[in-house]
């Protein structure tokens, strides 16, 4: 088998794992929010009140995508819009207490999902996987 075929198989397997995790996530998290919504909440929780453009840049999203995500979060009361008192044109997003609660719940479900995924591996396999990902990211 040539190296190109192996790379394509690896990419395919990685996509299958990701897709499987998304399906499992949607089955266990019943808040009608996707992973991207949770990433926005997480960004706001970590960084505090933020401009939408900064959130989009930090998460690698386009501004229209962030607008779509934030509209749903606002409608659900998980995020609020705030104006800058000095420059009324400047808009910020801020996570609410309900948003923090949903984020906490999502993080718990995410931990359960990772535990289910990685419980199939023994200690040596986990260390090998960690080393491989570290090498690929380095």
Order of helices and strands: HHHHEEHH
Distance between the termini: 27 Å
CATH architecture: Orthogonal Bundle
Helicity level: over 70%
Strand-residue fraction? 5-15%
Count of β-strands: 2
pLDDT averaged residue by residue: 91
CATH topology: Arc Repressor Mutant, subunit A
3D shape: elongated
User: What is the strand arrangement across the widest sheet?
Assistant: 1-2
Poorly predicted parts: none
How does this model look, in words?
It comes from Heyndrickxia shackletonii. Pfam families: MarR. Residues 4-138 form the HTH marR-type domain. This protein is mostly helical and 138 residues long. It has a single domain (33-137), classed as Winged helix-like DNA-binding domain superfamily/Winged helix DNA-binding domain (Arc Repressor Mutant, subunit A, Orthogonal Bundle). 70% of the residues lie in helices and 7% in strands. It has helices spanning 3-28, 35-47, 52-59, 63-75, 97-118, 123-137, and strands at residues 79-83, 91-95. Strands 1-2 form a two-stranded antiparallel ribbon. Helix 1 crosses helix 5, helix 2 (35-47) packs across helix 5 (97-118) and helix 3 (52-59) packs across helix 4 (63-75). The longest helix is centred in the first third of the chain and has 26 residues, at 3-28. The two termini are 27 Å apart. The mean pLDDT is 91.
